[in-house]
């Protein structure tokens, strides 16, 4: 039982890390798109 809980906790932590990575990537994508849009306006 303890080992099962330990494994679930590890899976949960891994999923949280993946979620944060995806969120950071989305934030970067949004920044890049905004930068592109701003760059086009300045031309």
Number of helices: 1
| Main pleated-sheet profile | none
Ends: how far apart? Answer: 63 Å
Estimated structural class? mainly alpha
Helix content: over 70%
How many strands appear in the DSSP assignment? 0
SSE string: H
Helix and strand topology:
Elements: H1 2-42
How would you describe what is shown here?
The protein has one helix spanning 2-42. It is mainly alpha-helical and 43 residues long. It has one domain.
Please summarize what this structure is.
The protein is mainly α and 43 residues long. The chain is built from one helix and no strands. It has one domain.
Q: What distinguishing features does this structure have?
A:
43 residues, mainly alpha, rod-shaped
């Amino acid at each position: 039982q303890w080992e099962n809980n330990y494994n679930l906790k590890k899976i949960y932590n891994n999923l949280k890390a993946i979620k944060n990575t995806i969120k950071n990537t989305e934030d970067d994508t949004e920044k890049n798109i905004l930068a592109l849009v701003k760059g086009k306006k300045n031309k």
